[in-house]
Amino acid sequence: MKIRIALIAGLLVSASYGYGQENQRKNFVSCPVVQDTKTVPCWLSEYKGELYYLGIQSDISAEFHPPYLGHKVLVEGSVSNEPRICGGVVLKPVVVSPLPEPDSSCSTILPAVDKYTVPFAPRPPGPSGGSLAFATPPRAPSPVVPPFMPREFSIFYDFDMTVMGRHAGVLSQIVDYTEKTEAKRVLVTSRRGATLLSDGGLLTEQPGIAQARAEEMADLLKRAGLKATIQITARSEPDPSDGVDDWQSRRTTVRVEP
C-alpha cells in the first residue's frame, strides 16, 4: 500500500511539473507594440490579455532583432522569473519573427512614462559594436591545423524568410574554414519549419522556402569567392513540431568537407 501511494505521489509530481513547464512556453502570433522610454524603446506583444516583453531597440548588430510595425510577429519564448520590463512579462530566451504579410492594425506606439525604465545604458557615440558596445572584442579564431575535419555551420531564419542581409559572421566563418582547409566539397541542406502554437494551432512555412534558402546560400557562398563544389538539398517537409524550440527547424546546415 505504501509503495502504491508513493508511486501515485510521484506521478502527480511529475505531471504537475510537466504542466508547469508546458505553461512556461509561449508561442503565439500577435501585433508588436512599441513602448517608448527615456532611453530606448521597448518592444512588447500581447497574448490572451497579458503583455510580454520581447527586447529593446538597439543597433543592427545586436543579438535581438526587433520586429516591425505594420506586420504581426511570431513570438517563441519561455516565461522567466525576471521582474517585468516596460510592463511586460519577460520572455527569455525569446525568438521573434516578423511575418511577411502587411497588417496595418499593428501600429501601436505608447508614449514614454516615468515608471518604465530599461536596464540598458545607451550606446555612446561612435561606430557600432553591437548590443554590448562596451564589451571586450571577441578573441581571434584559433588557427586551423591538420588533420582537417568536416565541420557544420547552422544558419537560422525568421519565419518564411531567407537570410535578409543577416548572418555575416557565420558566413565569413564558412568561407574562412573552406579556404584554410582547401575543402573540395560543401554540402548545403535547407529545411522548412513549423511551430506549434500555445493555442494548439500549427504555423507552417510556405512550400518552396527550403529550396529558396538552399539556392540563396549557394549563391552567397559563390559570390564570396568559394571555389569548392557546392551541393544543395532542400527538405520540403518540416520537422515534427512540439512547441519547444521549433524555431530551430527553420535552418540551413552548411557542412564543409576538407
Looking at this structure, what is the CATH superfamily of the largest domain?
Answer: OmpA-like domain
> Which structural class best describes the helix and strand composition?
alpha+beta
Outline the low-pLDDT stretches.
1-22, 121-139
Provide the spatial order of strands within the biggest beta sheet: 1-5-6-4-3-2-7
List SSEs in N-to-C order: HEEEEEEEEHEEEHEE
What's the domain count? 2
Number of strands: 13
The CATH topology name of the largest domain reads 60s Ribosomal Protein L30, Chain: A
What is the radius of gyration? 22 Å
Specify the CATH class of the largest domain. Alpha Beta
As a percent range, the share of strand residues is 25-35%
- What coarse outline follows from CA principal-axis ratios? elongated
Distance between the termini: 63 Å
* Helix fraction bin: 10-25%
H/I helix tally: 3
Mean pLDDT: 83
Report the sheet with the most strands, covering strand number, pairing sense and barrel closure: 7 strands, mixed
- CATH architecture name of the largest domain: 2-Layer Sandwich
